[in-house]
Protein backbone atom coordinates (compact mmCIF):
# COMPACT_ATOMS: atom_id res chain seq x y z
CA UNK A 1 0.00 0.00 0.00
CA UNK A 2 1.51 3.33 -1.12
CA UNK A 3 1.70 6.35 1.20
CA UNK A 4 -1.23 8.15 -0.47
CA UNK A 5 -3.53 5.15 -0.20
CA UNK A 6 -2.47 4.59 3.42
CA UNK A 7 -3.23 8.25 4.21
CA UNK A 8 -6.70 8.00 2.62
CA UNK A 9 -7.39 4.75 4.47
CA UNK A 10 -6.40 6.32 7.78
CA UNK A 11 -8.47 9.43 7.03
CA UNK A 12 -11.58 7.29 6.38
CA UNK A 13 -10.97 5.35 9.59
CA UNK A 14 -10.47 8.64 11.43
CA UNK A 15 -13.78 10.08 10.22
CA UNK A 16 -15.66 6.92 11.23
CA UNK A 17 -13.88 6.85 14.60
CA UNK A 18 -14.68 10.55 15.02
CA UNK A 19 -18.39 9.90 14.55
CA UNK A 20 -18.19 7.31 17.32
CA UNK A 21 -16.35 9.77 19.59
CA UNK A 22 -19.02 12.37 18.85
CA UNK A 23 -21.76 9.91 19.79
CA UNK A 24 -19.97 9.17 23.08
CA UNK A 25 -19.86 12.89 23.90
CA UNK A 26 -23.35 14.06 22.86
CA UNK A 27 -25.05 13.08 26.13
CA UNK A 28 -22.38 14.75 28.26
CA UNK A 29 -22.62 17.93 26.19
CA UNK A 30 -26.44 17.98 26.36
CA UNK A 31 -26.54 17.66 30.16
CA UNK A 32 -23.92 20.38 30.62
CA UNK A 33 -25.64 22.66 28.12
CA UNK A 34 -28.96 22.50 29.98
CA UNK A 35 -27.88 22.43 33.62
CA UNK A 36 -24.24 23.49 33.65
CA UNK A 37 -23.27 20.31 35.50
CA UNK A 38 -20.77 17.68 34.40
CA UNK A 39 -21.99 14.09 34.56
CA UNK A 40 -19.02 12.20 36.00
CA UNK A 41 -20.99 8.95 35.74
CA UNK A 42 -21.21 9.37 31.95
CA UNK A 43 -18.76 6.61 31.03
CA UNK A 44 -20.33 4.07 33.37
CA UNK A 45 -23.75 4.82 31.84
CA UNK A 46 -22.33 4.00 28.41
CA UNK A 47 -20.95 0.71 29.75
CA UNK A 48 -24.36 -0.08 31.27
CA UNK A 49 -25.91 0.59 27.84
CA UNK A 50 -23.42 -1.87 26.31
CA UNK A 51 -24.34 -4.61 28.81
CA UNK A 52 -28.07 -4.05 28.35
CA UNK A 53 -27.61 -4.37 24.58
CA UNK A 54 -25.42 -7.46 25.08
CA UNK A 55 -28.04 -9.31 27.09
CA UNK A 56 -30.85 -8.39 24.72
CA UNK A 57 -28.70 -9.83 21.93
CA UNK A 58 -27.89 -13.01 23.89
CA UNK A 59 -31.38 -13.65 25.27
CA UNK A 60 -33.59 -12.43 22.42
CA UNK A 61 -31.25 -12.45 19.44
CA UNK A 62 -31.99 -8.80 18.57
CA UNK A 63 -29.02 -7.02 16.98
CA UNK A 64 -27.57 -3.95 18.79
CA UNK A 65 -28.43 -1.80 15.77
CA UNK A 66 -32.09 -2.51 16.57
CA UNK A 67 -32.07 -2.99 20.35
CA UNK A 68 -30.35 0.35 21.08
CA UNK A 69 -33.85 1.84 21.48
CA UNK A 70 -34.47 -0.40 24.51
CA UNK A 71 -31.17 0.66 26.09
CA UNK A 72 -32.01 4.30 25.46
CA UNK A 73 -35.41 3.91 27.17
CA UNK A 74 -33.92 2.17 30.22
CA UNK A 75 -31.18 4.79 30.59
CA UNK A 76 -33.74 7.57 30.13
CA UNK A 77 -35.71 6.24 33.13
CA UNK A 78 -32.54 5.90 35.18
CA UNK A 79 -31.37 9.41 34.25
CA UNK A 80 -34.78 10.91 35.07
CA UNK A 81 -34.71 9.23 38.49
CA UNK A 82 -31.10 10.28 39.15
CA UNK A 83 -31.85 13.90 38.29
CA UNK A 84 -35.03 14.06 40.38
CA UNK A 85 -33.52 12.33 43.42
CA UNK A 86 -29.96 13.71 43.44
CA UNK A 87 -28.87 16.20 40.81
CA UNK A 88 -31.68 18.73 41.35
CA UNK A 89 -30.54 18.98 44.98
CA UNK A 90 -26.94 19.85 44.09
CA UNK A 91 -27.44 22.25 41.15
CA UNK A 92 -26.80 25.31 43.34
CA UNK A 93 -23.85 23.77 45.18
CA UNK A 94 -20.29 24.94 44.45
CA UNK A 95 -18.82 23.09 41.48
CA UNK A 96 -16.35 21.17 43.64
CA UNK A 97 -19.25 19.77 45.70
CA UNK A 98 -21.18 18.74 42.59
CA UNK A 99 -18.39 16.38 41.58
CA UNK A 100 -18.56 13.97 44.52
CA UNK A 101 -22.19 12.71 44.19
CA UNK A 102 -21.81 12.03 40.45
CA UNK A 103 -18.45 10.30 40.87
CA UNK A 104 -20.13 8.18 43.56
CA UNK A 105 -22.97 7.31 41.16
CA UNK A 106 -20.36 6.20 38.60
CA UNK A 107 -18.65 3.96 41.16
CA UNK A 108 -21.99 2.47 42.21
CA UNK A 109 -22.87 1.69 38.58
CA UNK A 110 -19.45 0.14 37.94
CA UNK A 111 -19.76 -2.14 40.96
CA UNK A 112 -23.35 -3.09 40.10
CA UNK A 113 -22.17 -4.09 36.62
CA UNK A 114 -19.38 -6.16 38.21
CA UNK A 115 -21.87 -7.82 40.55
CA UNK A 116 -24.36 -8.75 37.83
CA UNK A 117 -22.06 -9.54 34.89
CA UNK A 118 -18.62 -10.23 36.39
CA UNK A 119 -15.19 -8.82 35.41
CA UNK A 120 -14.63 -10.77 32.17
CA UNK A 121 -14.59 -9.15 28.75
CA UNK A 122 -17.49 -10.09 26.49
CA UNK A 123 -17.33 -9.82 22.72
CA UNK A 124 -20.56 -10.93 21.02
CA UNK A 125 -20.89 -11.68 17.32
CA UNK A 126 -23.33 -9.46 15.47
CA UNK A 127 -24.72 -9.50 11.94
CA UNK A 128 -22.22 -6.92 10.64
CA UNK A 129 -19.11 -7.98 12.57
CA UNK A 130 -17.04 -8.90 9.51
CA UNK A 131 -18.78 -6.79 6.87
CA UNK A 132 -16.59 -4.52 4.73
CA UNK A 133 -17.12 -2.17 1.82
CA UNK A 134 -14.36 -1.55 -0.73
CA UNK A 135 -14.07 1.72 -2.69
CA UNK A 136 -11.16 1.14 -5.03
CA UNK A 137 -8.30 0.33 -2.59
CA UNK A 138 -9.99 1.87 0.45
CA UNK A 139 -11.67 -0.50 2.93
CA UNK A 140 -14.60 0.71 5.03
CA UNK A 141 -15.64 -1.26 8.11
CA UNK A 142 -19.38 -1.96 7.85
CA UNK A 143 -20.03 -1.79 11.60
CA UNK A 144 -18.20 1.52 11.99
CA UNK A 145 -20.04 2.97 8.99
CA UNK A 146 -23.45 2.05 10.44
CA UNK A 147 -22.49 3.45 13.84
CA UNK A 148 -21.24 6.66 12.18
CA UNK A 149 -24.49 7.15 10.23
CA UNK A 150 -26.63 6.46 13.31
CA UNK A 151 -24.49 8.89 15.35
CA UNK A 152 -25.32 11.65 12.84
CA UNK A 153 -28.99 10.68 12.81
CA UNK A 154 -29.26 10.59 16.62
CA UNK A 155 -27.51 13.94 17.01
CA UNK A 156 -29.80 15.47 14.38
CA UNK A 157 -32.82 13.94 16.11
CA UNK A 158 -31.89 15.39 19.51
CA UNK A 159 -31.15 18.77 17.91
CA UNK A 160 -34.53 18.88 16.13
CA UNK A 161 -36.32 17.75 19.30
CA UNK A 162 -34.77 20.62 21.25
CA UNK A 163 -35.55 23.12 18.47
CA UNK A 164 -39.07 22.10 17.43
CA UNK A 165 -40.89 20.31 20.26
CA UNK A 166 -42.64 22.12 23.12
CA UNK A 167 -40.62 20.18 25.70
CA UNK A 168 -37.44 20.97 23.79
CA UNK A 169 -38.26 24.68 23.79
CA UNK A 170 -38.90 24.52 27.54
CA UNK A 171 -35.54 22.81 28.03
CA UNK A 172 -33.79 25.56 26.06
CA UNK A 173 -35.66 28.25 27.99
CA UNK A 174 -34.64 26.72 31.33
CA UNK A 175 -31.06 26.46 30.11
CA UNK A 176 -30.96 30.11 28.97
CA UNK A 177 -32.58 31.64 32.06
CA UNK A 178 -33.73 29.45 34.92
CA UNK A 179 -35.44 32.25 36.83
CA UNK A 180 -37.19 33.55 33.72
CA UNK A 181 -38.43 30.04 32.91
CA UNK A 182 -39.96 29.75 36.40
CA UNK A 183 -41.67 33.16 36.00
CA UNK A 184 -43.41 32.08 32.77
CA UNK A 185 -44.75 28.91 34.42
CA UNK A 186 -42.22 26.26 33.42
CA UNK A 187 -41.63 23.54 36.00
CA UNK A 188 -37.85 23.76 35.85
CA UNK A 189 -37.16 20.73 38.03
CA UNK A 190 -39.35 18.52 35.86
CA UNK A 191 -37.74 19.91 32.70
CA UNK A 192 -34.28 19.23 34.18
CA UNK A 193 -35.37 15.67 34.94
CA UNK A 194 -36.40 15.19 31.32
CA UNK A 195 -33.20 16.80 30.00
CA UNK A 196 -30.96 14.58 32.12
CA UNK A 197 -33.03 11.58 31.06
CA UNK A 198 -32.58 12.55 27.41
CA UNK A 199 -28.82 12.92 27.89
CA UNK A 200 -28.71 9.52 29.61
CA UNK A 201 -30.79 8.00 26.79
CA UNK A 202 -28.16 9.06 24.25
CA UNK A 203 -25.50 7.31 26.36
CA UNK A 204 -27.61 4.14 26.38
CA UNK A 205 -27.93 4.31 22.60
CA UNK A 206 -24.19 5.00 22.30
CA UNK A 207 -23.39 1.94 24.43
CA UNK A 208 -25.51 -0.33 22.23
CA UNK A 209 -23.98 1.02 19.02
CA UNK A 210 -20.45 0.62 20.43
CA UNK A 211 -21.03 -3.04 21.33
CA UNK A 212 -20.26 -4.44 17.84
CA UNK A 213 -17.01 -2.45 17.72
CA UNK A 214 -15.22 -3.49 20.91
CA UNK A 215 -15.31 -6.06 23.74
CA UNK A 216 -17.24 -4.79 26.75
CA UNK A 217 -15.76 -4.71 30.25
CA UNK A 218 -17.02 -3.14 33.51
CA UNK A 219 -13.86 -1.02 33.74
CA UNK A 220 -14.24 0.88 30.44
CA UNK A 221 -16.29 3.73 31.89
CA UNK A 222 -13.35 5.91 32.93
CA UNK A 223 -11.88 5.82 29.40
CA UNK A 224 -15.25 6.78 27.88
CA UNK A 225 -15.63 9.68 30.32
CA UNK A 226 -12.13 10.95 29.54
CA UNK A 227 -12.71 10.73 25.78
CA UNK A 228 -16.04 12.54 26.13
CA UNK A 229 -14.38 15.35 28.13
CA UNK A 230 -11.74 15.90 25.46
CA UNK A 231 -14.35 15.90 22.68
CA UNK A 232 -16.78 18.35 24.31
CA UNK A 233 -13.97 20.73 25.28
CA UNK A 234 -12.71 20.67 21.69
CA UNK A 235 -16.15 21.29 20.23
CA UNK A 236 -17.54 23.60 22.93
CA UNK A 237 -19.19 22.59 26.20
CA UNK A 238 -22.95 22.29 25.77
CA UNK A 239 -22.95 22.41 21.95
CA UNK A 240 -24.31 19.21 20.34
CA UNK A 241 -22.82 19.89 16.91
CA UNK A 242 -19.63 20.92 18.65
CA UNK A 243 -19.47 17.44 20.22
CA UNK A 244 -19.78 15.88 16.78
CA UNK A 245 -17.16 18.26 15.31
CA UNK A 246 -14.81 17.65 18.24
CA UNK A 247 -15.22 13.91 17.77
CA UNK A 248 -14.38 14.13 14.06
CA UNK A 249 -11.28 16.24 14.75
CA UNK A 250 -10.07 13.91 17.49
CA UNK A 251 -10.73 10.79 15.40
CA UNK A 252 -8.85 12.20 12.39
CA UNK A 253 -5.95 13.42 14.53
CA UNK A 254 -5.53 10.07 16.29
CA UNK A 255 -5.84 8.07 13.07
CA UNK A 256 -3.49 10.21 10.96
CA UNK A 257 -0.94 10.44 13.78
CA UNK A 258 -0.03 6.81 12.99
CA UNK A 259 1.79 8.16 9.92
CA UNK A 260 4.40 9.84 12.13
CA UNK A 261 4.00 8.36 15.62
CA UNK A 262 3.86 4.83 17.07
CA UNK A 263 0.24 3.60 17.48
CA UNK A 264 0.72 3.38 21.25
CA UNK A 265 1.12 7.19 21.38
CA UNK A 266 -2.21 8.11 19.78
CA UNK A 267 -3.67 9.17 23.14
CA UNK A 268 -0.85 11.70 23.45
CA UNK A 269 -2.32 13.42 20.38
CA UNK A 270 -5.69 13.88 22.07
CA UNK A 271 -4.09 15.51 25.11
CA UNK A 272 -1.94 17.78 22.93
CA UNK A 273 -5.13 18.91 21.15
CA UNK A 274 -6.79 19.46 24.51
CA UNK A 275 -3.90 21.62 25.77
CA UNK A 276 -3.86 23.69 22.57
CA UNK A 277 -7.62 24.35 22.63
CA UNK A 278 -7.54 25.20 26.35
CA UNK A 279 -4.72 27.71 25.79
CA UNK A 280 -5.95 29.43 22.63
CA UNK A 281 -9.74 28.88 22.49
CA UNK A 282 -11.04 27.71 25.88
CA UNK A 283 -14.68 28.17 24.81
CA UNK A 284 -14.18 25.45 22.17
CA UNK A 285 -14.31 25.58 18.37
CA UNK A 286 -18.07 26.17 18.47
CA UNK A 287 -19.06 28.31 21.42
CA UNK A 288 -20.96 26.23 23.96
CA UNK A 289 -24.53 26.85 25.00
CA UNK A 290 -23.41 28.06 28.43
TrEMBL record:
Keywords: Amino-acid transport, Cell membrane, Membrane, Transmembrane, Transmembrane helix, Transport. GO terms for molecular function: transmembrane transporter activity. Its main location: membrane. The chain crosses the membrane at residues 20-38, 45-62, 68-87, 99-118, 138-162, 194-214, 226-252, 259-280. It is found in: Cell membrane. The keyword Cell membrane applies. It is a multi-pass membrane protein. GO terms for biological process: amino acid transport. GO terms for cellular component: plasma membrane. InterPro entries: ABC_transp_permease, BCAA_transport_permease. PANTHER family: AMINO ACID ABC TRANSPORTER PERMEASE PROTEIN, BRANCHED-CHAIN AMINO ACID TRANSPORT SYSTEM PERMEASE PROTEIN LIVH. Belongs to the binding-protein-dependent transport system permease family. LivHM subfamily. This is Branched-chain amino acid ABC transporter permease.
